[in-house]
User: Which sequence fits this backbone?
């Protein structure tokens, strides 16, 4: 069974299409939220996810896009992009985003955007937070996004181990508890501008991280044409 796991697509349809092409035939597409925000094509991304039958959860940007108070916490550029997103979002895309749950379980694996204990907002970036969240997981394996960095946090004999997920890296989870992050499709922040995703075999507990190159300049041009903040377009070249 091959599942494509995608997170933080952020209205970047060009990156999403590159990832779906690179993933090849899959048995399912799971997304971990932040479908919209920052990028130039929120309706296109929602449309594509519906087309491929993706299932997933709500991120902080998705919550803000449908009118949640989350927008109060955004920095000025993210906020400007979110106001733009709210203005262009088609009613059916809005309804689809609004229906996303905060967490869900698929094939015995828990899906959240931020963390199991705080599904919308917590950034799992330290061993302390990862350890607390590994304990809170309702399943052995959890998938999360939000940080835009591909990693796995593993519970090993009472310790928490951090593993970075580079292109082509594989991980066999066995019976270890793990919280795994595919990285970001639409706005990677690990210094590599290519779109990040992972392929998961839930039954075997097998993970492969991957990257897909896409036409960054075309997305930046669309962002400038839409009047989105230049800093958000510029950062895509650097993967930060
Ligand atoms: Zn995000």
Assistant:
């Amino acid at each position: 069974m091959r599942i494509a796991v995608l997170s933080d697509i952020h209205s970047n349809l060009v990156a999403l299409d590159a990832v779906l092409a690179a993933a090849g035939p899959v048995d399912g597409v799971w997304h971990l939220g932040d479908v919209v925000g920052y990028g130039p094509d929120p309706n296109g991304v929602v449309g594509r996810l519906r087309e491929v039958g993706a299932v997933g959860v709500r991120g902080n940007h998705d919550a803000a896009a449908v009118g949640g108070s989350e927008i109060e916490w955004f920095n000025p550029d993210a906020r400007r992009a979110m106001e733009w997103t709210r203005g262009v979002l088609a009613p059916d895309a809005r309804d689809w985003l609004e229906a996303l749950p905060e967490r869900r379980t698929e094939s015995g694996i828990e899906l959240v955007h931020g963390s199991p204990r705080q599904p919308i907002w917590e950034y799992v970036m330290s061993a302390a937070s990862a350890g607390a969240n590994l304990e809170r997981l309702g399943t052995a394996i959890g998938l999360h996004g939000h940080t835009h960095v591909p990693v796995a946090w593993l519970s090993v004999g009472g310790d928490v181990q951090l593993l970075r997920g580079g292109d082509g890296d594989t991980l066999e989870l066995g019976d270890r508890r793990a919280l795994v992050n595919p990285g970001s499709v639409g706005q990677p922040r690990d210094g590599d501008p290519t779109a990040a995703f992972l392929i998961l075999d839930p039954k075997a507990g097998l993970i492969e991280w991957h990257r897909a190159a896409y036409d960054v300049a075309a997305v930046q041009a669309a962002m400038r044409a839409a009047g989105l903040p230049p800093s958000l377009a510029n950062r895509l070249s650097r993967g930060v």
Q: What stands out?
A: The chain has one domain: 3-237.
